[in-house]
Each structure stands twice: as C-alpha cells, then as structure tokens.
C-alpha cells in the first residue's frame, strides 16, 4: 500500500542532512475526517516519529490524524494513531475504517482485525466505499474516561462558559479515547471554536477530552459537531459519533441505532444490545498517494 522510495540523505539549503528517508503514504478521509495512512509493516524502525516530526508532517500535509500500520502477531496490523498536535492517542473510529478499507483493497478480504491501543477492532466491508467497524464496548466509569474525581458519567457535574454562552452537564464516554458530549438546542448557531478548546483543556479531564456538541433531531437522527482533542474542529469524528449515540441513549434521547449527521457526512451508529458493542458504519474516500519525508 505504501512503500519506501529512497533512503538517501535529503540535504537542506545549508547542505545539512534533513531526512534519511522518504516514503509513499496515502491521503484518506472518513466522512471528511482527514488522515495520512502510512504502512510500515515489514519495515519496523523506518519511521522514527516524534511529536515534532508529526507536527511538521501536519504542516506539510494537513490532516486530523496520522495512522501508522505496524506488524502484529495477533491481528492483520497494529495501528498507531497521532493527532495533528503530535500526541499519540488510543482510538480513531473513522481512521480505523479508512485503514481497513485500504488493507481490504490489498488482500481482497471483506473482514479484518486491527489491533490498537484502545483494543482489537473488527472491520467489515459495508458496500462500495463504505466500511463498518466494531468499536467494542463503551467505557462509562469515571476512572475509564478518565476524570480527576468520582462523578456520574451520565451527566457530569461540570459547566463551562465563554462570551456569555454557558453549557453544562455533558455525558462522558470513552471509546478508547475520552469524550464529553453536550446536548445543544441549536447547533447551527453554536460557538464550537469558542467553547471547544475550553472543554478540551478543562482540569476535570487529566488526559484532555474530545468535546462533542449534539442536537437531537429525533430518536434516529442526531446532528453532531466535534472539537477534537489535539486536532480542533473536524468534518466528522467516528468515536465522537459513537460517544454521542451512547450518551444520548443513556438519557433516553434516542434509540440504540441512529444516523449521526456530521459536517462532512453521515455516520450510522448502533449500540448493539446483544453484546454491548458499538458499531460504526460510514463512507471512506481514497485521496491518493503522497510522498512523506521521514
Ligand atoms: N477522528 C477520530 C477521533 C480521534 C480522536 C482524537 N482526537 C483523540 O484525541 O482522541 C475518530 O474518528 O474517532
């Protein structure tokens, strides 16, 4: 899927060695959520990533998350995930769907497993340019979000205010990464860029948090915008969509399955009663190869 194209030194204008290698990676998106996908299976160590190198990559090729496929003894690959701010994180629903699609093109299989820091995820071809991923069980205890002190995650004892707009009592859910979901009456006129960062960096969340802002349209449709931890506003957020469905259903605001309408597209989420797993389904788009300096 991606290959090293050379390992010679790349010199900068002063003749200093800047990079040891270049490789071909792939630009992809899931409902507009933008990724760079790099496959280093069989070439461990070729990619020596640091927060600075990830940030430099994000400046050269804007993305929300960098996804790196590494060798795994138990799954088809181990996928590591970095936000564009350079922090490595545990889960990325849309990224998992995008990586699975690319791997399925290679193998011809219609199911596969991807191991991640947030757990082993099973992906399935869901039709042309569409992939489903089983995101596993939602984690709902305050220690699993995590929070700095005990609290009922159904609706947190938490409020923020900025420029005269006050929001409170979000639901908290972890899908392998932390989410706080606020229920808003009119999302079209809500200041996500104003309040998103205030929520992301609130002291209640020791690992920061992804801030979801959801408007319930009816029991099967939710409009959602997400200020992502370490990435800001994104066109869609897969784990955010899962968290919004779980938080809303826990409060009786929607069914166990709903369509989540993001800025960049629609994601179907089902919180399956039979095994408590959350299934995320939606579109993927292959934006083609890019050369990465690494
Ligand atoms: N866009 C990703 C979420 C990335 C979450 C990341 N921002 C974090 O810090 O957890 C998704 O589709 O699930």
Automatic annotation (TrEMBL):
Q: In which pathway does it act?
A: Amino-acid biosynthesis; L-lysine biosynthesis via DAP pathway; DL-2,6-diaminopimelate from LL-2,6-diaminopimelate: step 1/1
**Sequence positions that bind substrate:** 33, 65, 83, 93-94, 177, 210, 228-229, 238-239
Top-tier EC class: isomerase
The entry's function note states: Catalyzes the stereoinversion of LL-2,6-diaminopimelate (L,L-DAP) to meso-diaminopimelate (meso-DAP), a precursor of L-lysine and an essential component of the bacterial peptidoglycan.
Write down the superkingdom of origin: Bacteria
Is Membrane among the key words of this record?
no
Q: Where in the cell is it found?
A: Cytoplasm
Question: Is Cytoplasm set as a keyword in this record?
Answer: yes
Protein name per its UniProtKB record: Diaminopimelate epimerase
Keyword terms, alphabetized: Amino-acid biosynthesis, Cytoplasm, Isomerase, Lysine biosynthesis
Q: Give me the Gene Ontology terms describing cellular component.
A: cytosol
The protein's matches in InterPro entries, at most eight in alphabetical order, are given as: DAP_epimerase_DapF
Q: By its UniProt entry, which Gene3D superfamilies does this protein fall under? A: Diaminopimelate Epimerase, Chain A, domain 1 (3.10.310.10)
Name the catalytic site residues. 92 (proton donor), 237 (proton acceptor)
Locate the site labelled Could be important to modulate the pK values of the two catalytic cysteine residues. Answer: 179, 228
Q: Which reaction does it catalyse?
A: (2S,6S)-2,6-diaminopimelate = meso-2,6-diaminopimelate
Enumerate the GO terms in the molecular function aspect: diaminopimelate epimerase activity
Quaternary arrangement and interactors, per the entry? Homodimer.
Q: Which GO terms describe its biological process?
A: lysine biosynthetic process via diaminopimelate
What is the primary gene name for this protein? dapF
């Amino acid at each position: 899927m991606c290959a090293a194209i050379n390992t010679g030194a790349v010199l900068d204008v002063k003749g200093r060695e800047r990079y040891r290698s270049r490789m071909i990676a792939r630009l992809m998106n899931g409902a507009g959520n933008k990724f760079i996908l790099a496959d280093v299976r069989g070439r461990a160590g070729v990619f020596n990533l640091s927060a600075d190198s990830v940030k430099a990559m994000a400046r050269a090729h804007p993305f929300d998350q960098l996804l790196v496929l590494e060798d795994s003894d138990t799954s088809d690959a181990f996928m590591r995930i970095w936000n564009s701010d350079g922090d490595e994180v545990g889960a990325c629903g849309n990224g998992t769907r995008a990586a699975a699609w690319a791997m399925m093109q290679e193998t011809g299989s219609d199911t596969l497993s991807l191991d991640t820091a947030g757990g082993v995820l099973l992906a399935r071809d869901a039709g042309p340019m569409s992939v489903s991923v089983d995101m596993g069980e939602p984690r709902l205890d305050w220690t699993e979000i995590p929070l700095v002190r005990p609290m009922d995650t159904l609706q947190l004892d938490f409020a923020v205010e900025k420029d005269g707009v006050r929001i409170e009592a979000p639901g908290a859910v972890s899908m392998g990464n932390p989410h706080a979901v606020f229920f808003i009456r009119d999302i079209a006129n809500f200041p996500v860029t104003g309040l998103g960062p205030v929520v992301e960096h609130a002291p209640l969340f020791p690992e920061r948090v992804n801030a979801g802002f959801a408007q319930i349209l009816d029991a099967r449709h939710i409009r959602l915008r997400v200020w992502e931890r370490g990435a800001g506003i994104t066109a869609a957020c897969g784990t955010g969509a899962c968290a919004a469905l779980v938080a809303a259903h826990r409060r009786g605001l929607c069914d166990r399955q709903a369509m989540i309408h993001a800025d960049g597209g629609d994601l179907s989420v089902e919180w399956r009663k039979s095994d408590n797993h959350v299934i995320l389904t939606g579109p993927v788009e292959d934006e083609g190869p890019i050369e990465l300096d690494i």
